[in-house]
Amino acid sequence: MQPLKHRPTYDAPCVNDPLRRAVERLNADLVTYLGEGQTLMGDMAQVMQAILREIDETILPRRFDLADDSGPIAHLSIASRRLVRVGLPGDDNSCEIPETTTAAAYFTILLERACKAGGPFRLERIGRDDTISDSGQSCSVQDMRDALATMSMAGKPHALFKQIEPTAISWVFIEGNDAEPRQGGTADHFDMLANLASNERRQAGVHTRLAGKLAAKPTCTILPLGDALRVIVASDQEALLLAVLTVEQVAQVVETWSTL
Amino acid sequence: MSIAASLDDLRRDNPGCSLVAFGDLGTRLVLRASSDAPCAQEHYDRICAQAAQVFSSCDVVAEASGHSCKDATAATMLTQTETRIFVRSPADKVDFICCVCEPGHSSDAITSMAATALREISQEQKCNL
Fold first, then answer.
1. What residue in B sits closest to A207 (Cα-Cα)?
2. Minimal Cα–Cα distance from B79 to chain A, Å?
3. Which of A25, A30, A42, A78 is the most buried (most CB within 10 A)?
4. At B88, phi and psi to the nearest 5?
5. Chain B residues bordering chain A (beta-carbon distance below 8 Å)
6. pLDDT tens digits along A92-150
7. What is the domain extent for residue B18?
8. How many distinct structural domains can be found in chain B?
9. In 3D, which of A225, B115, A78, A8 has the Cα closest to residue A87?
10. What CA–CA distance (Å, rounded) separates A34 from B61?
11. Do B60 and A196 lie within an 8 Å CB cutoff?
12. What ipTM does this complex have?
């Protein structure tokens, strides 16, 4: 056991500031908590920063209103450092998270919709929320950050497709869930790419339903096809690009992907 | 050499590699990992899910193109913030190593080193039986 004199004291600087503030809030009375300053926010990015900060620092179940000059534009519930609910005024259905998406992605879409009219916005602390249940989906700060990153990167497969279409040996491109695939290049690989597309869609569906964590972050996967060829699978929420390329062309894709 | 030491060596010998995980595709569990910062179980679960997805795609490509699945042992996944290199054992197709590296990290050398590490781990496991 560590000697007592070597143990850190409770006055030692806390590395995890959000957690420290969250614990401090547990001690604060409700009036003090509600009275803390609310700054005006000019855009969606500032709104998300404020919401992420509240999620990080809120342990007890609390209600918040995101408001603009006309009044509340979204109702939020946060507990145990997780965003539990986002609802839009006048839209009761908005509280139901569709099975096909994650809580973080859905909440981010709703907040973006709420902020569409433009700021200034303010995040108001309303008080305790006694309606939060233990069941149901919720998301952490990291989940929200991932969802925001996903939204900001939408369109990468499309941009990559434009670059590789002229030189790819064979390609299949699918935009939207029900759209007919477009294909080009030599026909030798079409069946294989079609099988792969089915597999990708099925896998993405399974992960979204069961794990809810892999939901369509833009990725580009490089798979082996013999010694000289590679298959790339680039996807996001909207599009799926599959292409057969030479090893040399893949090196170019790796460079291109990070700059899109 | 122990599994932990093999993973530590692999990470140390590849600057820009922040995490090396050894897992089992059958149980979808990361059994050992070497990382420069503590990782949540959730993170390892995602790696296992991604590995299963990536190698399922490898098998589809290999089968549809008439190549052996045993040759389809490595794949690379690029995201905006990371390069993830997945290598699986050709012997049992269950053991895998995932290396999480910075974007743009070259996959050739680390793939070869991960394959060697997998062979060493397999030998170690046989010796312990």
1. B49
2. 5
3. A78
4. -120, 160
5. 42, 45-46, 49-50, 53-54, 56-58, 60-62, 64-65, 67, 71-81, 103-104, 107
6. 665 677 666 788 888 888 888 888 777 788 888 888 888 877 777 889 988 888 888 77
7. 3-127
8. 1
9. A78
10. 58
11. yes
12. 0.92
